[in-house]
Design brief:
By secondary structure, the chain is mainly alpha-helical. It has two domains: 13-83, no CATH class; 89-195, no CATH class. It is built from twelve helices and two strands; from the N terminus they run αααααβαααβαααα. α1 packs antiparallel against α4 and α5 packs parallel to α8 (132-144). The longest helix has 13 residues, at 70-82. It starts with 13 loop residues before the first helix and ends with a helix.
Length: 195
Amino acid sequence: MTESLVADPRPKQPAREWWRKIYDQRTGDPAARARLRRCRNTNDVLTIPAGVLLARMMGDMPRESDRVGARFSRALDLARVLAHVSEDAAAHPMREVGWPIFPGGRREGDLERGPKLSESRFRRLLQSETGEDLVAQFTRLIALMGGHANVAALSDAFRWWDHPDGRTKQRWAFEYFHAAAAARSASDSPEGSEK
């Protein structure tokens, strides 16, 4: 009997491919996942081949003549973070834990659920510094989502969190506040159609 394979329409992404490899039901490495979850710092990951493999797959391994750099350390920390993901979800992480509707568009008296991630915790996430603080914030976020998270979105955000252009944090805020809904409703309004 042959298994039918369903093609994943999402583009290939090294961190997602790594995550699938260590989480594969038949050939995965549950011991490595457990060891990565228990790592207390970046150097702990150096003793776990699966963690170093992520850095290699992402092209972040230092060359022999180069010093070990921030990209290598960030990839090792990403392995620690992704070890907490139990299921690769399709939705952006902030759509999972953010506002279900744009909060600025609510009418007084509307009773809907608020975000799973409080605004103060969201601000704390945005203010996270790289290193242990960022690892802790992302790990807490994954726990809040019950281990179901978009591996590609998490890995991209984790890698570029402190980029000077700030686009990653802007995107996360846009998704958290469900600003796309506000933009759609503004373009549907009579005032938006006059432009």
